[in-house]
Write a structure and sequence with these properties.
29% strand; alpha/beta; 238 residues
Length: 238
């Protein structure tokens, strides 16, 4: 499997590129600033990320760590952090950035981990890795199994309804017609001549989030900046 994301991050780390190209399965494409998304320092983070990460406690697992900006910040604060990503290239960049504990692993394979964690990080919109309701509830069950009794999840996501872009609204409408959540999307990363594999991702509103969690052992404790298109939140066990 071609590690397009890892190649892209490696080139950003080496100063060879600045933008990430994201393609949706309806043909819509957009570019975003890779430095801000993956390599920004704490002072440049959004306010909702800064507030959410303050709730970190105990042993931490950072899922979908990318270049490791959250892991590195917490590591420097003295936390015991394991940075994980499905991309071997991303983990290589993490190590170069100075993250000490890393592992190449998918969010669907978390039960293979032996340690118990107190904080699960799904920042950088990585609540989206739960894909959809069925997959998400199963993954949240696995995260319950690898965490201690009073563990928390710190996550961020995008409210799909907070948009004026016509192409997004059409995509959401088609999802709803198919009895899906509006923000269930299929994406891939493109870089140079490389095209990554398609993968499912989830954007969810604060209202949908509570319904999404109703059949799990997690509940919303805090939500930060729910009025914005992108927001963060803290989940605790019921």
């Amino acid at each position: 499997m071609q590690d397009t994301f890892g190649l892209f991050l490696s080139d950003v780390y080496c100063g060879k590129t600045l933008f990430e190209i994201i393609e949706r399965n309806d043909g819509f494409m957009e570019a975003r600033d890779a430095k801000q998304a993956y390599f920004s320092n704490f002072e440049d983070w959004s306010g909702f990320e800064k507030k959410a990460i303050e709730y970190t406690k105990g042993r931490v697992i950072d899922i979908g760590c990318g270049a490791g900006r959250h892991s590195l910040f917490l590591q420097e604060k003295g936390f015991d952090v394991l940075a994980t990503d499905i991309s071997a290239g991303a983990i290589s960049v993490c190590r170069k950035m100075g993250v000490r504990k890393t592992r190449v692993i998918s969010i669907e394979k978390m039960t293979s981990l032996r340690n118990k964690f107190d904080t699960v990080l799904l920042l950088g919109n990585n609540f989206g890795l739960l894909k959809n309701e069925k997959s998400g509830q199963r993954i949240l069950g696995e995260l319950e199994n690898i965490t201690n009794k009073n563990a928390i999840i710190i996550a961020s996501t995008v409210n799909p309804y907070r948009t004026d872009i016509v192409e997004h609204k059409k995509y959401h409408t088609q999802n709803i017609k198919k009895s899906r959540l509006a923000g269930e999307i299929v994406l891939r990363i493109r870089y140079k001549s490389n095209k990554g594999d398609w993968f499912k991702y989830l954007f969810i509103s604060p209202e949908e989030l509570r319904d999404f969690l109703s059949c799990t052992n997690w509940k919303v404790e805090k939500i930060f900046s729910p009025q914005l298109p992108t927001y963060s939140f803290v989940l605790v066990k019921k």
